[in-house]
Amino acid sequence: MDQTAKILEIPVVVTEQYPKGLGPTVPELGAEGLKKYSKTCFSMLIPEVEKELQRTPERQSVILCGIETHACIMSTTLDLLNKGFDVHVVADACSSRSQVDRLLALSRMKQSGAFLTTGEGAILQLLQDATHPKFKEVQKIIKDPAPDSGLLALFQNQNPLFS
């Protein structure tokens, strides 16, 4: 999502959960050069992030991904929903230490009004049309299949949590 955000000039906000104790954002996530806000609360809606959101008052939607779906992503989602935002959670770009925590958090966010999507699904919704001027550039990012996120097994046999 980070590469697509750069190409489409979509603002990205990165928070780090207590980097002093847990360590900084790993380079593999592609967040080098982006400002990172340190936090100890689970929600990323800290005063600095709220100021970032206020810079574009016309923004109605937020796309979320990250670590500890059942803590940080869920807390942020619920806070954003309470503030009237449409929240799109990129399920295959969210993780938890346990699949049970991840699954139940995704289910609760959906029940609360968030939209669950995949990385490729979110990217294609941002583009809306193959005639988008940056489609070919973004298409290179999604050309190869995404790695297995472990979610497919959760949806087999019509998982009742997502019905």
From TrEMBL:
<dbReference type="Pfam" id="PF00857">
    <property type="entry name" value="Isochorismatase"/>
</dbReference>
<dbReference type="InterPro" id="IPR036380">
    <property type="entry name" value="Isochorismatase-like_sf"/>
</dbReference>
<comment type="similarity">
    <text>Belongs to the isochorismatase family.</text>
</comment>
<dbReference type="InterPro" id="IPR000868">
    <property type="entry name" value="Isochorismatase-like_dom"/>
</dbReference>
<protein>
    <recommendedName>
        <fullName>Isochorismatase-like domain-containing protein</fullName>
    </recommendedName>
</protein>
<feature type="domain" description="Isochorismatase-like">
    <location>
        <begin position="4"/>
        <end position="120"/>
    </location>
</feature>
<dbReference type="InterPro" id="IPR050993">
    <property type="entry name" value="Isochorismatase_domain"/>
</dbReference>
